[in-house]
Amino acid sequence: MSTDPTQRHVHLPDGPIPRHVAVIMDGNGRWAAERGLPRHAGHREGMKAVREAIEGAAEMGVGILTLFAFSTENWQRPRDEILALMALLKLYAESECEELAERGIEVRVLGDLSRMDPESREAIDEIQSVTDGGGAMRLNLMISYSGREDILQAVRALAARVEAGELDPAAIDQERLEDELFTAGLPDPDLLVRTSGEFRLSNFMLWQLAYTEIHISPVLWPDFTRADLSEAILDYQRRERRFGRVSTR
Ligand code: FPP
Question: pTM for the complete prediction?
Fold first, then answer.
Protein backbone atom coordinates (compact mmCIF):
# COMPACT_ATOMS: atom_id res chain seq x y z
CA MET A 1 0.00 0.00 0.00
CA SER A 2 1.23 3.49 -0.78
CA THR A 3 2.59 5.50 2.14
CA ASP A 4 1.80 8.75 0.36
CA PRO A 5 -1.17 10.12 2.37
CA THR A 6 -2.57 11.82 -0.72
CA GLN A 7 -2.90 8.41 -2.38
CA ARG A 8 -4.68 6.82 0.59
CA HIS A 9 -8.05 5.42 -0.34
CA VAL A 10 -10.74 6.97 1.76
CA HIS A 11 -13.74 4.94 2.89
CA LEU A 12 -16.86 6.61 4.10
CA PRO A 13 -19.64 4.60 5.72
CA ASP A 14 -23.15 5.03 4.42
CA GLY A 15 -24.46 8.20 5.94
CA PRO A 16 -25.31 11.75 5.10
CA ILE A 17 -22.58 13.67 3.34
CA PRO A 18 -22.72 17.34 4.31
CA ARG A 19 -23.98 19.40 1.41
CA HIS A 20 -21.81 22.39 2.38
CA VAL A 21 -18.46 22.14 4.20
CA ALA A 22 -16.62 25.28 5.36
CA VAL A 23 -12.99 25.20 6.46
CA ILE A 24 -10.85 27.55 8.56
CA MET A 25 -7.39 26.61 7.32
CA ASP A 26 -5.16 27.31 10.32
CA GLY A 27 -1.63 26.44 11.39
CA ASN A 28 0.51 27.35 8.38
CA GLY A 29 2.73 29.62 10.50
CA ARG A 30 3.24 26.98 13.20
CA TRP A 31 3.97 24.32 10.57
CA ALA A 32 6.74 26.55 9.20
CA ALA A 33 8.06 27.52 12.65
CA GLU A 34 8.36 23.85 13.65
CA ARG A 35 10.73 23.43 10.69
CA GLY A 36 12.66 26.69 11.18
CA LEU A 37 11.14 28.03 7.95
CA PRO A 38 9.64 31.47 7.21
CA ARG A 39 5.85 31.76 7.53
CA HIS A 40 5.33 32.02 3.79
CA ALA A 41 6.79 28.51 3.42
CA GLY A 42 3.85 27.29 5.52
CA HIS A 43 1.38 29.07 3.26
CA ARG A 44 3.05 27.58 0.17
CA GLU A 45 2.79 24.08 1.64
CA GLY A 46 -0.81 24.91 2.60
CA MET A 47 -1.61 25.16 -1.07
CA LYS A 48 -1.05 21.38 -1.41
CA ALA A 49 -3.57 20.81 1.36
CA VAL A 50 -6.01 23.06 -0.51
CA ARG A 51 -5.75 20.72 -3.51
CA GLU A 52 -6.14 17.71 -1.26
CA ALA A 53 -9.27 19.14 0.41
CA ILE A 54 -10.85 20.09 -2.93
CA GLU A 55 -10.22 16.69 -4.52
CA GLY A 56 -11.31 14.85 -1.38
CA ALA A 57 -14.51 16.89 -1.00
CA ALA A 58 -15.43 16.41 -4.67
CA GLU A 59 -14.79 12.64 -4.45
CA MET A 60 -16.89 12.33 -1.28
CA GLY A 61 -19.83 14.12 -2.89
CA VAL A 62 -19.71 17.42 -1.01
CA GLY A 63 -21.66 19.96 -3.05
CA ILE A 64 -20.10 23.17 -1.77
CA LEU A 65 -16.67 23.66 -0.23
CA THR A 66 -15.88 27.04 1.32
CA LEU A 67 -12.26 27.82 2.26
CA PHE A 68 -11.23 30.78 4.44
CA ALA A 69 -8.07 31.87 2.63
CA PHE A 70 -7.53 35.45 3.82
CA SER A 71 -9.45 37.45 6.43
CA THR A 72 -10.07 41.19 6.61
CA GLU A 73 -7.89 41.10 9.74
CA ASN A 74 -5.05 39.43 7.80
CA TRP A 75 -4.44 42.80 6.07
CA GLN A 76 -2.78 43.76 9.39
CA ARG A 77 -0.05 41.12 9.00
CA PRO A 78 3.51 42.16 8.04
CA ARG A 79 3.68 43.50 4.49
CA ASP A 80 5.98 40.74 3.22
CA GLU A 81 3.58 38.04 4.47
CA ILE A 82 0.61 39.79 2.79
CA LEU A 83 2.55 40.04 -0.47
CA ALA A 84 3.52 36.37 -0.26
CA LEU A 85 -0.10 35.34 0.37
CA MET A 86 -1.41 37.48 -2.49
CA ALA A 87 1.25 36.06 -4.82
CA LEU A 88 0.25 32.53 -3.78
CA LEU A 89 -3.45 33.17 -4.35
CA LYS A 90 -2.68 34.56 -7.80
CA LEU A 91 -0.38 31.62 -8.56
CA TYR A 92 -3.09 29.24 -7.40
CA ALA A 93 -5.77 30.90 -9.55
CA GLU A 94 -3.52 30.83 -12.61
CA SER A 95 -2.06 27.35 -12.22
CA GLU A 96 -5.19 25.44 -11.12
CA CYS A 97 -7.71 27.12 -13.39
CA GLU A 98 -7.72 24.52 -16.17
CA GLU A 99 -7.72 21.50 -13.88
CA LEU A 100 -10.56 22.86 -11.76
CA ALA A 101 -12.57 23.49 -14.93
CA GLU A 102 -11.87 19.93 -16.13
CA ARG A 103 -13.04 18.56 -12.79
CA GLY A 104 -16.26 20.56 -13.11
CA ILE A 105 -15.49 22.70 -10.07
CA GLU A 106 -17.07 26.13 -10.19
CA VAL A 107 -14.97 28.69 -8.33
CA ARG A 108 -16.28 31.87 -6.72
CA VAL A 109 -14.05 34.27 -4.79
CA LEU A 110 -16.02 36.03 -2.05
CA GLY A 111 -14.97 39.02 0.02
CA ASP A 112 -13.96 42.67 -0.32
CA LEU A 113 -11.84 42.33 -3.45
CA SER A 114 -11.48 46.12 -3.83
CA ARG A 115 -8.39 45.91 -1.61
CA MET A 116 -6.61 43.46 -3.88
CA ASP A 117 -4.05 44.39 -6.51
CA PRO A 118 -5.22 44.55 -10.14
CA GLU A 119 -3.23 41.46 -11.25
CA SER A 120 -4.74 39.30 -8.52
CA ARG A 121 -8.20 40.57 -9.41
CA GLU A 122 -7.58 39.71 -13.03
CA ALA A 123 -6.56 36.17 -12.06
CA ILE A 124 -9.72 35.92 -9.94
CA ASP A 125 -11.93 37.09 -12.83
CA GLU A 126 -10.26 34.52 -15.06
CA ILE A 127 -10.68 31.53 -12.71
CA GLN A 128 -14.32 32.48 -12.12
CA SER A 129 -15.14 32.76 -15.81
CA VAL A 130 -13.19 29.64 -16.90
CA THR A 131 -14.80 27.47 -14.20
CA ASP A 132 -18.27 29.03 -14.53
CA GLY A 133 -21.04 26.46 -14.86
CA GLY A 134 -19.00 23.54 -13.44
CA GLY A 135 -21.55 21.13 -12.01
CA ALA A 136 -19.44 18.75 -9.89
CA MET A 137 -18.82 21.04 -6.92
CA ARG A 138 -18.92 24.71 -5.99
CA LEU A 139 -15.73 26.07 -4.42
CA ASN A 140 -15.90 29.35 -2.52
CA LEU A 141 -12.54 30.98 -1.76
CA MET A 142 -13.11 33.56 0.96
CA ILE A 143 -10.55 36.30 0.48
CA SER A 144 -10.44 39.63 2.30
CA TYR A 145 -13.52 38.30 4.08
CA SER A 146 -14.90 38.75 7.59
CA GLY A 147 -18.24 37.63 8.96
CA ARG A 148 -19.06 40.98 10.58
CA GLU A 149 -18.14 42.90 7.40
CA ASP A 150 -20.33 40.49 5.41
CA ILE A 151 -23.32 41.35 7.63
CA LEU A 152 -22.49 45.08 7.55
CA GLN A 153 -22.29 45.28 3.78
CA ALA A 154 -25.62 43.42 3.59
CA VAL A 155 -27.19 45.92 6.02
CA ARG A 156 -25.81 48.83 3.98
CA ALA A 157 -27.32 47.37 0.80
CA LEU A 158 -30.71 46.96 2.49
CA ALA A 159 -30.52 50.49 3.96
CA ALA A 160 -29.80 51.91 0.49
CA ARG A 161 -32.89 50.17 -0.87
CA VAL A 162 -34.99 51.54 2.00
CA GLU A 163 -33.59 55.03 1.33
CA ALA A 164 -34.48 54.68 -2.36
CA GLY A 165 -38.05 53.83 -1.37
CA GLU A 166 -37.77 50.31 -2.83
CA LEU A 167 -38.00 48.40 0.44
CA ASP A 168 -40.25 48.65 3.49
CA PRO A 169 -38.15 48.18 6.69
CA ALA A 170 -40.93 45.94 8.04
CA ALA A 171 -40.31 43.57 5.09
CA ILE A 172 -36.69 42.95 6.13
CA ASP A 173 -36.50 39.35 7.31
CA GLN A 174 -33.77 36.69 7.43
CA GLU A 175 -34.20 35.74 3.78
CA ARG A 176 -33.85 39.37 2.61
CA LEU A 177 -30.65 39.78 4.59
CA GLU A 178 -29.28 36.44 3.36
CA ASP A 179 -29.92 37.59 -0.20
CA GLU A 180 -27.36 40.36 0.35
CA LEU A 181 -24.62 38.23 1.96
CA PHE A 182 -21.68 37.10 -0.15
CA THR A 183 -23.13 33.59 0.09
CA ALA A 184 -26.54 34.60 -1.34
CA GLY A 185 -28.36 31.63 -2.81
CA LEU A 186 -26.25 29.00 -1.02
CA PRO A 187 -27.35 26.81 1.88
CA ASP A 188 -25.59 27.41 5.21
CA PRO A 189 -22.60 25.17 5.95
CA ASP A 190 -23.59 21.84 7.53
CA LEU A 191 -20.07 21.26 8.78
CA LEU A 192 -17.26 23.64 9.78
CA VAL A 193 -13.75 22.19 10.02
CA ARG A 194 -11.04 24.15 11.79
CA THR A 195 -7.49 22.85 11.81
CA SER A 196 -4.60 23.28 14.27
CA GLY A 197 -6.69 22.53 17.36
CA GLU A 198 -7.99 26.09 17.87
CA PHE A 199 -11.56 26.50 19.16
CA ARG A 200 -12.46 29.85 17.61
CA LEU A 201 -14.67 31.19 14.79
CA SER A 202 -12.26 34.06 14.02
CA ASN A 203 -14.98 36.23 12.50
CA PHE A 204 -15.83 33.62 9.85
CA MET A 205 -19.37 33.35 8.38
CA LEU A 206 -20.98 34.50 11.64
CA TRP A 207 -24.49 34.57 10.22
CA GLN A 208 -24.22 31.39 8.17
CA LEU A 209 -22.73 29.18 10.93
CA ALA A 210 -25.69 29.57 13.33
CA TYR A 211 -26.57 25.82 13.28
CA THR A 212 -23.42 24.37 11.75
CA GLU A 213 -21.73 21.33 13.32
CA ILE A 214 -18.10 22.08 14.24
CA HIS A 215 -15.18 19.69 13.93
CA ILE A 216 -11.80 20.75 15.34
CA SER A 217 -8.88 18.86 13.83
CA PRO A 218 -5.52 18.88 15.64
CA VAL A 219 -3.68 18.70 12.30
CA LEU A 220 -1.82 21.81 11.10
CA TRP A 221 -3.27 22.90 7.75
CA PRO A 222 -0.26 21.99 5.54
CA ASP A 223 -0.51 18.39 6.83
CA PHE A 224 -4.27 18.14 6.20
CA THR A 225 -5.25 15.31 3.83
CA ARG A 226 -8.45 13.86 2.44
CA ALA A 227 -8.27 11.28 5.22
CA ASP A 228 -8.59 14.13 7.75
CA LEU A 229 -11.56 15.48 5.79
CA SER A 230 -13.10 12.03 5.83
CA GLU A 231 -12.60 11.88 9.62
CA ALA A 232 -14.37 15.24 9.97
CA ILE A 233 -17.30 13.90 7.93
CA LEU A 234 -17.45 10.73 10.01
CA ASP A 235 -17.60 12.91 13.13
CA TYR A 236 -20.41 14.92 11.47
CA GLN A 237 -22.32 11.71 10.73
CA ARG A 238 -22.31 10.86 14.45
CA ARG A 239 -23.98 14.16 15.36
CA GLU A 240 -27.68 14.61 15.91
CA ARG A 241 -28.75 17.89 14.34
CA ARG A 242 -31.72 19.41 16.15
CA PHE A 243 -31.76 23.04 14.95
CA GLY A 244 -33.06 24.12 18.38
CA ARG A 245 -35.80 21.47 18.42
CA VAL A 246 -36.06 18.37 20.62
CA SER A 247 -34.61 14.98 19.68
CA THR A 248 -36.52 12.82 17.23
CA ARG A 249 -34.43 9.69 17.95
C1 FPP B 1 -3.76 30.51 8.65
O2 FPP B 1 -2.52 30.07 9.15
C3 FPP B 1 -3.76 30.54 7.19
C4 FPP B 1 -3.82 31.65 6.42
C5 FPP B 1 -3.91 33.01 7.02
C6 FPP B 1 -3.77 31.58 4.96
C7 FPP B 1 -4.35 30.40 4.27
C8 FPP B 1 -3.73 30.28 2.94
C9 FPP B 1 -3.39 29.13 2.33
C10 FPP B 1 -3.72 27.83 2.86
C11 FPP B 1 -2.59 29.16 1.06
C12 FPP B 1 -3.24 29.37 -0.20
C13 FPP B 1 -4.71 29.30 -0.26
C14 FPP B 1 -5.40 29.09 -1.40
C15 FPP B 1 -6.89 29.10 -1.41
C16 FPP B 1 -4.73 28.82 -2.67
P17 FPP B 1 -1.70 31.02 10.11
O18 FPP B 1 -0.71 31.76 9.26
O19 FPP B 1 -2.60 31.90 10.90
O20 FPP B 1 -1.00 29.96 11.01
P21 FPP B 1 -0.56 30.10 12.55
O22 FPP B 1 -1.83 30.29 13.35
O23 FPP B 1 0.12 28.81 12.82
O24 FPP B 1 0.36 31.29 12.63
Answer: 0.94
Task: Using alpha carbons, list the distances in angstroms from residue 233 to 6, 10, 19, 199, 227.
Answer: 17, 11, 11, 18, 10
CA distance 239 to 96: 34
Nearest atom, ligand 1, residue 69 CA: 7
Ligand 1 neighbours by CB, cut-off 6 Å: 25-30, 43, 46-47, 50, 67, 69, 74, 88-89, 92, 141, 221
Which residue, by CA, sits nearest to atom 12 of ligand 1? 47
Collapsing DSSP states into helix, strand and coil, what is residue 210?
coil
Query: Does residue 74 have an active-site annotation?
Result: yes
Respond yes or no: is residue 140 known to be catalytic: no
List domains and CATH numbers for the chain. 15-146+216-237 (3.40.1180.10)
Tens place of pLDDT per residue across the chain (249 aa): 333 444 455 666 568 999 999 999 999 999 999 999 999 999 999 999 999 999 999 999 999 999 999 999 999 999 999 999 999 999 999 999 999 999 999 999 999 999 999 999 999 999 999 999 999 999 999 999 999 999 999 999 999 999 999 999 999 999 999 999 999 999 999 999 999 999 999 999 999 999 999 999 999 999 999 999 999 999 999 998 777 787 766
